[in-house]
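ok so i was messing around last nite and threw this chain in just to see what happens. nothing serious, just curious
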Amino acid sequence: MTTQNLEQERQRRIKAITDRRDYPLVEMREKFAPGTHGCHEALHVASMLGDFVDERLCNHPAVLLNPEWYRLASAAQDALFELYQAIGSAHLGDEKHGQ
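result:
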């Protein structure tokens, strides 16, 4: 997916949330900005998913027997760890890493 397509998808998802009236955009920013409980929730989910991918997928026999699947599973775990680090930096106020 290109950077432009990825941004379009992100904007589409934001619009879907606001259209369903789950949260107006202003409220989303208030409830989920770094330093909020909502941001901490995202940090926790990234951690749990990274652990789950590592424990359950990277150690699954079918994945271990296939080098390409293992590479992809490992890349997914690495990406989730990178996401965890980025959210954590922003959530704890480290601006140089969080933006």
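not much to say yet. The first helix runs from residue 3 to 19.
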